[in-house]
Design brief:
Organism: Mesorhizobium hawassense
Number of strands: 6
GO cellular component, one term: cytosol
Strand content: 15-25%
Protein name: FMN reductase
Radius of gyration: 17 Å
Structural class: alpha/beta
CATH topology: Rossmann fold
GO molecular function: FMN binding; oxidoreductase activity
CATH architecture: 3-Layer(aba) Sandwich
CATH class: Alpha Beta
InterPro entries: Flavoprotein-like_sf, FMN_Rdtase-like_dom, NAD(P)H-dep_reductase
Length: 201
């Protein structure tokens, strides 16, 4: 079986976003993991409208062409790490919208989070964990929370994320968890597919 493919989803599209910094940092750590392949998925490249379909794609095919391509892209991956900025105690609208524009493509795959902003993005991450559970994902316990002091130090150029050992430890634990669950769930989905084919034969 091929190695699980993990998407690092950039959860902000603002011109002045901080997201590129944690994205490149977690991607470097993830790419050092021998058991997974990693791809950065930038929501700037997916100009989804605000959700305006007749129903979730779990129940009715999406009509929007970008949404259809987005669902195919999500389906390529075996697990996800989301960068999660916190706006007003929640995740960015663009990230929640992108999550809502797919359905079955997220099922039975692990989700991990790199939060930043007020209280390390913890409230945004909690919101996203709830959405992940509803989508039958497996949100992993380990997470990265870039607290406000660390955020400012990096933003102002005083430090780099890789200089902060407590964050490196959290990132390694996060990647290890996502990689483990991605491998297990990829095998389980493959077994389910074989069983379904046998029943249909």
């Amino acid at each position: 079986m091929s190695k699980p493919k993990i998407a690092i989803v950039v959860g902000s599209t603002r011109a002045a976003r901080f997201a590129d910094v944690p994205t490149q940092w977690i991607a470097k750590i993830a790419r050092s993991h021998a058991d997974i392949d990693v791809e950065i998925v930038d929501l700037r490249d997916w100009p989804l409208p605000f959700f305006d379909e007749v129903a979730s794609s779990a129940w009715a095919p999406s009509q929007n062409e970008v949404a259809q391509r987005w669902q195919k892209k999500v389906a390529e991956f075996d697990g996800f790490i989301f960068t999660a900025a916190e706006y007003n105690h929640g995740p960015t609208a663009v990230l929640k919208n992108a999550i809502d524009y797919a359905a079955n493509e997220w099922n039975k795959k692990p989700a991990g989070f790199v939060g930043y902003g007020s209280v390390g993005g913890s409230r945004a991450v909690e919101h996203l964990r709830l959405a992940a559970v509803e989508l039958q994902m497996a949100p992993v316990k380990s997470a990265v929370h870039i607290a406000w002091g660390d955020f400012l130090a990096v933003r102002q150029g005083e430090k780099k994320l890789e200089d902060l050992e407590h964050l490196n430890q959290s990132a390694t634990a996060l990647v290890n968890d996502v990689a483990w669950w991605a491998k297990v769930l990829k095998a389980a989905r493959a077994a389910d597919a074989i069983a379904s084919e046998a029943q249909a034969a």
